[in-house]
Amino acid sequence: MRRPRRGAVPPTAAGTLAAMSEPVPSTPDVLEKLVSLCKQRGFFFGSSEIYGGINALYDYGPLGARMRRNVRNLWWRAMVESRDDVEPIETSIIMNPQVWVASGHVATFSDPLVDCTGTCRKRWRADHLGDLRRERGKPEDAPGCPECGGPLTKARQFNLMFRTHLGPVADDAAQVYLRPETAQGMFVNFATVVQAMRRRLPFGLAQLCKSFRNEISPSNSIFRTREFEQMEMEFFCKPGTDVEWHDYWCTERMRWWTEDCGVRGSRLRLRVHDKEELSHYSTATSDVEYLFPWGWGELEGVADRTDFDLRSHMKHSGRDLSYFDTETTERYVPFVIEPAAGLDRGCLTMLVDAYDEEEVRGEKRVVLRLHPDVAPWQVAVLPLSKKPQLTEVSRALAARLRTRFRTEHDETQSIGRRYRRQDEIGTPLAVTVDFDSLEDNAVTIRERDGMTQVRVPIEQLERACEDQLAACRASALKRARE
Length: 482
Ligand code: GAP
Known about the structure:
By secondary structure, the protein is of the alpha+beta class. Helices cover 32% and strands 26% of the residues.
C-alpha cells in the first residue's frame, strides 16, 4: 500500500539516485506567506469557512481552479495525448467493496494512532511522534504527547478508507468505500479495455480523478488532505521487461516535473526505496521528492507493482485477467509500472518553488515565477486608467487575445498596484494600453521576471505575445535545469 511512501522521508545516501549537491530549500516561512497569499488572491482556502471550516479539506478559488486545470492539461498532454501507448479511462469513485478486499486496502490500509490521555486529549499518528515533537521544538524522543507531554495510549490501527452506505439501509451489507486510490479502477478494467480497444502490450491506462483518505495527521496545507486528486497511470507490460519500463518512467516523470512544469531540478530528487520500505505489492519503487521548507516530501511514486494486483483480482473475482500475446502465442499475467502523482501536492510544489521576494526601487516585490503553462493567466491587459477611451480599446484587445491566450482584463486600482497583483499571481505578461496607444496604435508589453518593457504595434500583438511567452518558457526551462 502507499503506507510506507507517505510524508517526508529522510534521505539515505545509498537510496538517492539524483540527489543534488546541497540543495537549498526555500525559507521556513515561505509556506505561511504563500498560504496567506493564496487565500487573499483566490488560489485556495479552507472548505466551508463560513461554518468554521472542516479539517484538511480545501476549496480552490478562481485562480486555483485555473492553475489546477493547467496542470491537469500538462499531465494529460504528456501522459495521454502525446503518446500512442496510453489510453484514458474514468472509473467510479465508489466500487464494489470486494475490490478493496482484493487490493489489500481493507486489511492493511491503516495508520497506527495513539490518543493523549493528558490535558490536550489530541490524537496522533504513532509513527510521526518524533517529527511532531520536533515541529514543536521538543526532543524527538521526549516522552508522552507532542503537545502537552501527557501520557499516550497504546497504538491502535485505524483504517484510512472513508465508509458510506449504498442504498437506503445503512447496514454492513450495504457498506462501501470512497476510493483511496484511482489505480484499482484501471486494474479491474484491464481485460475489458484490451478487448474493446484491440490493445496489445505494452500499453497504459491513465486516470486523473479524486481520491479520499481519512488521514490522521493531515499537514502542511494542501500537501496532505483528506480529499485530493491523483494523476495515475498503470503501464501493463510483459514480465521481464518491467525493470526497463520502470527506469523509463522514472526518467520521464522527472523530466515532466522540471521541463513541462518548471520545478527546479536542484530541489527535486528521485529516491529509491530500501527493501524494508517497499509496499507489499512492489519489487521496486522510486519517489520523486521535492525539498519543501519542512524537508523532503513525496510528489509522486513510480512503482513496479509486478502482477500483484491483476493476480489478486483474478483470485477474488474468478475472472481471467491474463493476456494472450498473438505474436509469441504466449499467455501471461502482465506486470505493471505505476507512476502515481498528486495534483494538489503538485500545485503546492509549483507555488512554493515559484515564490520569490525581491527589492525593487526600495520596495518589496512578491513574485510567483510560475511556468507560463502553469500560471492561471498568461496575459493581463491593463488600461492605464479607467477612462472610457482607454477601456474600450483594452477590452477589445483582451477579447482578441482571449482566443489565443488565457487573458485577464484588469482595470481597477492604480497601474502600479495592478502590476504588483499580476506579479503576485504569476502572470508572465502584462499589456498596457495608455493614451499614446490611441495615437500610435501601439501598446507596452511588460514581462514579469525581468520587468522589461517593449512597445509593439497593436496589429502585431498576438505574434509579440507568442514570442514573449516562448522566451518565458525558455527561461523557465533554464531555471528548472540550474
Ligand atoms: N496508487 C498508488 C498510490 O496511491 P500513493 O503514494 O499513496 O500511491 C500517490 O499516492 C500520490 O498521491 C502521492 O505521491 C501524493 O502526491 C498523492 N497523495 C497521496 N495521499 C495524499 C493526501 N492525503 N493528500 C494529498 N495528496 C496525496
